[in-house]
Amino acid sequence: MEYRQLGKSPVKASAITFGAWAIGGWMWGGADRREAIEAIRAAYEMGVTSIDTAPVYGQGLSEEIVGEAIAHIPRDKVQLFTKFGMRWDVKEGEYYFSSVDNEGRKIDLYKLARRDSVMKECEDCLRRLNTDYIDLFQIHWPDGTTPVAETMEALLRLQEQGKILAAGVCNYSVPLMEEAEKVISLASNQVPYSMVNRDIEKDVTGYCINHNISVIAYSPLQRGLLTGKIKPGHKFNAGDSREGNRFYTEESIRRVNQFLDKLLPIAENKKATLAQLVLAWTIRQPGITVALAGARNAQQAKENAGAIGVKISQSEMDTINQYIRELETEPLKVQS
C-alpha cells in the first residue's frame, strides 16, 4: 500500500481508503452489518488503514459499524475520517433534500455548520466511533446560512483541543477554499471524481496542487458503474438512489459499458479487474491524493486494496486517456 500525506497536516492516509457510505445502507438499498465489519477488517489486513465515513450515512450507523470494526486495532494504526454539517435531527440551516431512512421513514436533511452544531457533532462522532480523536474532520457540504469563517474557527478550536488532528472540506469550490484558508490550514477537499466525471480538473485540482491541499476523490468507480458489473436493464434494490441517477440512464450505462470494453484488455493483461484498473488510474492523476472505494463485503474490500499493485505505463495511460476523450466527444445522455 502507498501512504500519502494529507496536505500540510500530520495525517498520512492509505492511497486507497475505505469509503463507508454503502455500509450505512442509506441510499444503497440496505447493508449487512456483519459483512460490513468483515470488509473493514479485510481491507485493514491488505494495508487500507484509512476509513472515510459520516454521521448521515445511515444516521449514525456507518460510524457505529466502523467503531466496532476497529475496536481491536491499535488506534494509531488507523486513520478515521468523518464529517459534519448534514443534520437530520434538526430543522435549521440550509434545507438540502428529503429522503427515507433505512426503516423507510421520511427524513429532511439540512446543511448546518454553525459553531455550536460543529462542536456537538464532533462529540457525537467521537462517541459513535468509540474514540477520543478524529484524524480528519470534514464539512460535508457548504452551508450557505453560516459564514465560512465561523465554521473554520470551530474546527480550529477542536484542533487546539486535540479532538481532531486535521481539518478538511468536501464539495468546496475554489472561492470557498480561499475563504476557509484565511482561518485554518486545510488538509483536504473531498470531491467527486472519476473517469466519467472530471469537472474538478477545471480549477479545483490546480488550486489544491498550488496550495498543498490534498484531493480526496469520492465515487471514483462512479458508484459501481465503472466496475463493469452494471449492465443495461440492471435492477436496483428498493431504496437504492442510483436508480434514476444521471449516470444510470439506460443510454449512459450502455455507452459506459462500451468504453469499459476497450479498457478490459488492458486490465486482463495485468491480471486485474476493471475496478482495480480504474482505481489505479485515479490515484495517479495530478493532484489526487486518495481514492475512496466502498465495499459491502470482504471480497470487494480485498479487490479494491489490490488496485495499489496495478502498475500503468505511460503509454497505457495515454491509451486510457484517449478512450476517455472519445467517450467525452459524445457527452453522456443523462437526466438532470
Q: How would you summarize what this structure contains?
A:
The chain is of the alpha/beta class. Helices cover 35% and strands 19% of the residues.
Secondary-structure blueprint:
Blueprint: E1 3-5, E2 12-14, E3 16-19, H1 33-45, E4 50-52, H2 61-69, E5 79-84, E6 86-87, E7 94-100, E8 106-111, H3 115-129, E9 134-139, H4 148-160, E10 164-170, H5 174-180, E11 188-192, H6 204-210, E12 214-218, H7 250-269, H8 274-282, E13 288-294, H9 298-305, H10 314-329
Parallel strand pairs: 3-4, 3-13, 4-5, 5-9, 9-10, 10-11, 11-12, 12-13
Antiparallel strand pairs: 1-2, 6-8, 7-8
Helix pairs in contact: 1-2, 1-9, 3-4, 7-10
Task: Please give a structural write-up.
The protein is α/β, with parallel strands linked by helices. The chain contains ten helices and 13 strands. The strands form three sheets. The protein has an eight-stranded parallel beta barrel, surrounded by five helices. The chain has a three-stranded antiparallel sheet with strand order 6-8-7, with no helix packed on it. A two-stranded antiparallel sheet has the order 1-2. The longest helix is centred in the C-terminal third of the chain and has 20 residues, at 250-269.
